[in-house]
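Customer ticket, subject: "Can you confirm the structure for AzlD domain-containing protein?"

Message body: Hello, I'm evaluating your service for our small team and ran a test protein. I'd like someone to confirm that this is what the system normally returns, since I don't have a reference to compare against.
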Amino acid sequence: MSGGAIWLTLLGMGLVTQMIKLVLLIPKNPPTLPLRLQVALRVAPACALLSLIALDAARINGALALDWHNPKLWAVLSALLFFHYTRKPMLTIVLGMVVLLGARLLLAG
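Agent reply: Thanks for trying us out. I re-ran your input and got the following:
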């Protein structure tokens, strides 16, 4: 894809995003979304991020590695458990990075 095509694609995506926002914000009586859809839209970004992280954590050098020698799995599992009990995102990130570093050091030698 050429540089011009990339910029045109980005511009088009931005235009579509803004048009969707305008359709929902301009009318005097904005449409109300069903409760189930509101809940789904609230958790969609977290689900997308989790799918990317899970895919990366389950692989080492492009191969599937779901065993205890995978330091990324230890970091993800510990961060998930920690966040489940504390609901503190910054501490979860710090804990995940500390566990990842520790697991890499322990499992490398």
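A couple of notes from the result: The radius of gyration is 20 Å. Residues 34-108 form one domain. Feel free to reply with more questions.
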